[in-house]
């Protein structure tokens, strides 16, 4: 049975993958809770996760989890046979030479709101993720049911630090594994242009644009995401 490692995004618990895993009965889907407080940042977290992986695992990463997945692929190629990246970007915040991200001020606003009302921030963030979906209310309910708790303030703060400070653009040309990029056409958190950049700079990338979807396609349409994943793996790993 092929191994899948499913890495979630900021402020979300592993249960956010349950609907997708239900459509992948022939895969062993591992859903760890990422330790955003891990020493060494993304690299340290990648090393810790890779230490538990069997060889030739397919690593699936969503949003911030996609950044960890890229680090696993680069640092532990023997453990990672392929990557499937949802709503991926090499850099979350915009800059003069990176227009494909969120304004840095928004993450600073997240920090301030987390100190004042973490519950309100988590509700707001789930709402942002659900934007762009054809049925946003159902997606919002699902995301809120898997959101982190307010008692996880240290991990939430560490995750925001990773979002604000990570820039993996230099890493992309070094990834030798086949990569499937799945990106919602109406993602309000990671612009689709970031996915196009990844597709241009990853040597073996395939990009699929998911029309009418937002930041969490595996939540809004897990059957479709599972179908794309299985079909691509059939060709990428066995072709």
What's the SSE blueprint?
Layout: E1 2-7, H1 18-22, E2 27-30, H2 41-50, E3 57-62, H3 64-75, E4 80-86, H4 104-116, H5 118-130, H6 136-145, H7 153-165, E5 179-184, H8 192-201, E6 205-210, H9 217-220, H10 222-236
Parallel strand pairs: 1-2, 1-3, 3-4, 4-5, 5-6
Question: What is this entry, summarized?
Answer:
The chain is of the alpha/beta class and 239 residues long. The chain has helices spanning 18-22, 41-50, 64-75, 104-116, 118-130, 136-145, 153-165, 192-201, 217-220, 222-236, and strands spanning 2-7, 27-30, 57-62, 80-86, 179-184, 205-210.
Number of domains: 1
Radius of gyration: 16 Å
The proportion of residues forming helix, as a percent range, comes to: 40-55%
CATH topology term: Rossmann fold
The parts where pLDDT drops under 50 for at least 5 residues are none
Kindly report the average pLDDT value.
Answer: 95
The CATH superfamily appears as Alpha/Beta hydrolase fold, catalytic domain
**Which architecture name does CATH use?**
3-Layer(aba) Sandwich
End-to-end CA span: 18 Å
The run of helices and strands is: EHEHEHEHHHHEHEHH
Largest sheet: 6 strands, parallel
Tally of alpha and pi helices: 10
Q: How many beta-strand segments?
A: 6
